[in-house]
Design brief:
Number of strands of chain A: 12
Number of helices of chain B: 9
CATH topology of one domain in chain B: Rossmann fold
Strand content of chain A: 15-25%
Helix content of chain B: 25-40%
Oligomer: heterodimer
Low-confidence stretches of chain B: 346-363
Mean pLDDT of chain A: 75
Largest interface: A-B, 86 and 93 residues
Order of helices and strands of chain A: EEHHEEEEHHEEHEHEHEHE
Distance between the termini of chain A: 43 Å
CATH topology of the largest domain in chain A: Rossmann fold
Radius of gyration of chain B: 21 Å
Chain lengths: 282, 363
């Protein structure tokens, strides 16, 4: 908890001696004496200590048990009442919610506060979230031409960085997604974006122990009726990434499947003498 | 509020050196051992580590086993049953669904007085539960790794605990050397180890920290343990925006920091890593600055502009990590651990194929 009696301005501008930063434990919560000690340490006026001691601990209940990640009240004003009693009133309230915690639903907030934040595509994809992994997506540029469904948080960061505005989406569908999930992800992405896609990036899917061929099979099986040609770029990760890929046999079967389903163009790894036109680095 | 661990830390920290993170003496219990991901990962970890998983739990499945290349791992309904069977352990690995992780941690802590470490693989744990898990660990003197991580591994000790670092063949990826890795990304922990090998650098300890809002074993803890590990001559860190974990660190040894995520400042909500959303002063650019100040450099290292010091270098592209490290180590008069192995970067990975000329192209 960061607390100061000099509210109404940016806390970063204050003298650090007027700001209390108080660690406390989540299991026992924010206790009244913690607030009292903090206010005393920073020389807060005596008349505001008691009202804040009474009310501030309740904020922890709000943050911890109603799905919040952060909460800021600035300023808090003291409202005089009968017999000179002061009641703290929050004149501005900001908070962040944890999307992974359903507790915020207890607040009964109106739906329109959140739905404007996500598009139909994003909402459809988010439904693929399970206890087995992520399904996060954000539309970067709905006029973009590179579709990059990405598997893994690190891959998401790097791909988003590299592609910038050329990317249609920034996404993380989990580092180790099963076949069914990859197929569902691909189906939804193709439905919304394949028509405008110039390049399909197949990124990740082998970051840990997922079989890259499963990735091909799933993304190929998510067939659409659209017959747009596109380039496909595959970025392999995982424990075999520095070895030549074997595109014969099993891989070629999947690639043929992908080719007929998507119609993606099939690729050959360089050392098999395929017709390589360009190799991307970095 | 917290048990006293290492002196000088305002919270409990028990791991004093990197060689203590994943040891041959660690004995492991896996919660939800028969879950989908554990079924694939645990047998490989167990075999690689010489048989470190003593038992696993899966309610209602007592008597079943998890087959591994070096023998079956027994499964019990709960932790107490395994302990009552005489199977002691000091490390818990949690593969439970997000809503069950907090109670799983509570079970490990309350039932096993010999517990010293917990590795949480699960992603999407709520911040609420993460706070309480932290409090449980602190009050009971338990080091916790994760969540949303791929565990820890040690190339010298030949041990892997938790997740799939090194993939299906950790013996090929975890090459004994002198570089410690600490990464917010699980997949990149493995990738960085492989990249380093292409310039002849092997690894000591690898830690996948996860990138949730709360990172239980964070960069400061790693920096301390690095300084006290005689095997590690340098370190590589991979960091994303969000949080002050990397602020004001002292490594005591050369280090390369890779900061990725400048573009994340344009997102209005987290994608993937829940903790990779910056607030005020913890964007990717801020972290780049922290590391530059720590290393005494005034720019980002690239092969074209190789800005380094003897203390370290900052990169924003993971493929620049190996040359940056080699340059830093050269400043320190240190040579690679072995001859280069494999080939780095995307040069041999991304291949584009042009359609035949008589084929229509969308754009």
């Amino acid at each position: 908890m960061t607390l100061t009696h000099r509210g109404g301005m940016d806390i970063e501008e204050l003298d650090k001696r007027e700001v209390a930063q108080v660690p406390f434990e989540a299991l026992t919560g924010l206790k009244a004496f913690v607030v009292a000690n903090a206010l005393t340490d920073i020389g807060a006026p005596k008349e505001i200590i008691s009202p804040l001691v009474q009310h501030l601990p309740k904020l922890w209940e709000l943050v911890h048990h109603y799905g919040m990640t952060t909460l800021e009240l600035n300023p808090i004003r003291m409202r005089p009442g009968r017999e000179g009693r002061l009641t703290p009133v929050a004149c501005d309230f900001k908070c962040g919610f944890d999307r992974d915690d359903p507790r915020w639903q207890r607040l009964g907030l109106p739906n329109h506060m959140f739905t404007a934040d996500t598009s139909d595509f994003e909402q459809e994809v988010n439904q693929l979230r399970t206890h087995q992994g992520q399904s996060d997506v954000f539309v970067i540029n709905d006029k973009g031409t590179i579709l990059a469904p990405t598997f893994g948080g690190g891959a998401n960061s790097l791909v988003t960085e590299v592609l910038g505005e050329a990317a249609i989406i920034s996404s993380d569908f989990g580092g180790n997604p099963p076949y069914e999930k990859m197929k569902a992800v691909a189906r939804i992405c193709y439905k919304h974006w394949l028509a405008q896609t110039n390049v399909l990036f197949i990124i990740g899917g082998k970051s840990n122990n997922t079989d890259i061929y499963e990735t091909f099979r799933a993304m190929g099986a998510a067939r659409t009726l659209q017959q747009q040609w596109a380039y496909a770029a595959i970025r392999r990760g995982g424990s075999r990434r520095t070895k030549p890929c074997s595109w014969n046999g099993r891989a070629r079967g999947h690639l043929r499947f992908a080719q007929s389903a998507l119609p993606l163009l099939w690729l050959r790894q360089r050392n098999l003498g395929g017709r390589q036109l360009r190799q991307e680095g970095g | 509020m917290f048990r006293r661990g290492i002196e000088g830390f305002p919270y409990y920290l028990g791991v004093a050196a990197l060689d203590k993170v994943a040891t041959r003496d660690d004995r492991v219990c896996v919660l939800n051992i028969l879950g989908g991901e554990s079924r694939q990962v645990t047998p490989v970890s167990h075999a690689f580590s010489g048989g470190n998983v003593v038992f696993g739990t899966s309610p209602g499945r007592r008597g079943q086993v998890l087959p591994t290349p070096i023998g079956d791992i027994p499964v019990y309904n709960n932790v107490r049953e395994g302990l009552d069977a005489g199977l002691g352990f000091n490390t818990g690995v949690v593969y439970l669904p997000p809503s069950g992780v907090r109670d799983g941690v509570a079970e490990l802590v309350r039932v096993n007085p010999g517990l010293g470490k917990i590795v949480m693989i699960t992603e999407k744990i709520s911040v609420h539960d993460a706070r309480e898990i932290r409090a449980l660990g602190q009050a009971n003197g338990i080091d916790i790794f994760g969540a949303n991580c791929l565990g820890v591994a040690d190339s010298w000790n030949r041990v892997r605990i938790g997740g799939a670092l090194g993939g299906d063949n950790p013996e090929e990826v975890l090459l004994k050397g002198s570089i410690a890795i600490f990464s917010n990304s699980g997949g990149f922990t493995t990738t960085i180890a492989q990249y380093l090998a292409t310039e002849g650098w092997g690894t000591t300890t690898l830690i996948s920290s996860g990138k949730d809002v709360y990172i239980h074993y964070a960069a400061r803890d790693f920096a301390y343990a690095l300084q006290h590990d005689s095997r590690s001559r340098a370190a590589v860190l991979y960091a994303e925006p969000g949080g002050y974990y990397e602020h004001g660190l002292e490594f005591g040894k050369p280090a390369v920091a890779c900061v990725v995520g400048r573009w994340k400042s344009k997102l209005t909500r987290a994608v993937g890593h829940a903790g990779a959303m910056a607030g005020s002063g913890d964007k990717a650019e801020d972290k780049e600055q922290w590391f530059m100040e720590a290393f005494g450099v005034d720019g980002i290292f690239t092969p074209e502009r190789p800005i380094v010091s003897a203390k370290g270098a900052v990169v924003t592209n993971i493929s620049h990590i190996p040359p940056a490290l080699t340059a830093v180590m050269k400043r320190n008069g240190m040579s690679p651990d072995f001859a280069p192995r494999g080939r780095c970067g995307s040069r041999n990975v991304v291949v584009l194929y042009q359609p035949p000329t008589n084929t229509a192209v969308a754009r």
